[in-house]
Amino acid sequence: MKHIEKLAAIRSLMKERNIQAYIIPSSDPHISEYLPERYKCIAWTSGFTGSAGTLVITQDFAGLWTDARYFVQAAEQLQDTGFDLVKLVVQGAAEYATYLSTVLQAGDTVAFDGNLASLLVAKAVQEVLTPLDIRVDGQQDLLGPLWEGRPALPQGAAYLLPENITGQDTASKLAAVRAQLAAARVEQHIISSLDDLAWLFNIRGTDVPCNPVVLGFAQITAHEAVLYIELSKLSEAAIAELKGYGVRVASYETIYADVAGFKAGTSVLLDPKRTCYALYSLVPSEVQLVERINPSTVLKGVKNAVEIAHTRKTMIYDGVALTKFFKWLTENIGKEAMSEVSIAEKLRGFRAVQPGFVDVSFDTIAGYLDHGALPHYHALPEHEYQLAPKGLLLVDSGGQYQTGTTDITRVISLGELTEEEKADYTIVLKGTIEGSQAIFPRGSKGYQIDAITRRPIWETLRNYGHGTGHGVGFFLNVHEGPQVFNAAAIDVAIEKGMITSIEPGLYREGAHGIRIENLVLAEDFAESQFGSFMHFETLTLCYIATDLVEKSLLEQKHIDWLNTYNNWVYAQLSPYLDAEEAAWLAAQTVAI
């Protein structure tokens, strides 16, 4: 069935059920960013494959609301589907609710599947539409009856990580969560988000591509912890180990009945951003709801000493793989066939032989020429470019290792470099360096790092349409909260032990894209009479190309940082390279 036929079928079902507008979020019952095949509802409905967006369907209009990262990709993928691109002004905002308020009448019904919408999103829609006497129904699954051959839930095995990897056992993590529940005077807690679940129970799986998580829920009280999971995924030994930590394992689907059975007069903490509306709607009205961020999300964001030590070692493994990859690429461009897809596979191969490698941490973005201007570009054989000895190549990639998660972006010139490309590259590099060198008061928020990083880019009247940085998990999701470096990040303080990306960019549609990304660790810096100050330790180990640098655009402090960084990269990686590879890296890291 073509996408335009699916749209017609959805509209027919809407008429049968007297629904005037239908909303399809990009999500699942765990409010995940990256989804199991069963929940790739937007891709099935419209053909759009980006990781962020919302479809809204009425009888007269069908649109995809998404942000600047996906404008070009969405415009291409939505052709002839019946869906139009609607460009979000504010990333992540429910701007479609405002649109619906202008086209619907009092008495109309807006519906969605509560398993695919967070409580936060549902409330945002209700706040706009309910005062207009527009009914909001979160109990309508219109795709289920239409989706023939819909993929089943994944059945891959799950496993537990040992304490020498995680640095903290499940019992102590549960104790930390319970301490926060007690402080909030809350008796029970529901967890739906898969990375919180993975961290809390030191459990990993293969249910979501690139994210080593397993589908499940959890309920925690002062005396009991329940892990809801498909029982066949865990070995008897793993179940016994969890039992030793005071964790009872129950069937995945029984969470719904248990939540519906909460006793009147009790209280429950749930995270409105990370809990689906369907689960929330089952909580009895006599139960007090406490809506706040999952305690585990904050605890997980601050890495312990063992996790940090493992991450530093993992950066060496990843840096070795990247060095071998870029050496191969630059020495063989024009001599053998290369495409955006084939080089991504080649890079995976270099990573796969490193110690502890499990998977890539996201689909590699290999954007050549104007494809580099698509921040979340994903090459497919039908539209990929073949590489040639000219133009810029952007490679954004990462690995999942049992000892850490990596995420790095580099841009290299394949030949015939232009002055505009050099200037753009240097200005973005200047932003990366400014963010990396930042010294800031304890308690600073993500929006402040975002502005510090953008300042040298803004000064040239340039800008980019995505955030400056995101938290990164420890052998977990490559995008992790609670911290993020963007203009909206005004609530969460940067804490010692948080690992975050710094990745400014610049994108000229139809020409080229540039992004230079490292991961940094927040650490204490110094005390003064004006308070406590923090800074960042750069963790990522991969040379930054200097042949694209227009030195006259840099101040001496930027030149010193770049030279020091590249020298450090060589010192850290060369012992793990053969003589030819070390000599090649030495040439790439010569001071400018």
How would you characterize this protein structure?
It is built from 18 helices and 28 strands. The chain has 592 residues and is α+β, with helices and mostly antiparallel strands. The strands form eight sheets. It has a six-stranded mixed sheet, with helices on both faces. A six-stranded mixed sheet has the order 12-11-10-8-13-14. The mean pLDDT is 96.
Layout of helices and strands:
Elements: H1 3-16, E1 21-25, H2 41-46, E2 54-58, E3 62-66, H3 71-77, E4 84-87, H4 95-103, E5 109-112, H5 119-129, E6 135-137, E7 159-160, H6 163-166, H7 170-183, E8 188-191, H8 194-201, E9 203-204, E10 217-221, E11 225-228, H9 236-244, E12 247-250, H10 254-260, E13 267-270, H11 277-280, E14 288-291, H12 295-301, H13 305-332, H14 340-352, E15 357-360, E16 365-368, E17 392-397, E18 399-401, E19 404-405, E20 408-413, H15 419-437, E21 439-441, H16 446-458, E22 469-471, E23 480-485, E24 499-502, E25 505-508, E26 512-515, E27 518-528, E28 531-538, H17 556-573, H18 579-588
Parallel strand pairs: 1-5, 3-4, 5-6, 8-13, 11-12, 13-14
Antiparallel strand pairs: 1-2, 2-3, 7-9, 8-10, 10-11, 15-18, 16-17, 17-20, 18-19, 21-28, 22-23, 24-27, 25-26, 27-28
Helix pairs in contact: 4-5, 13-14, 15-16, 17-18
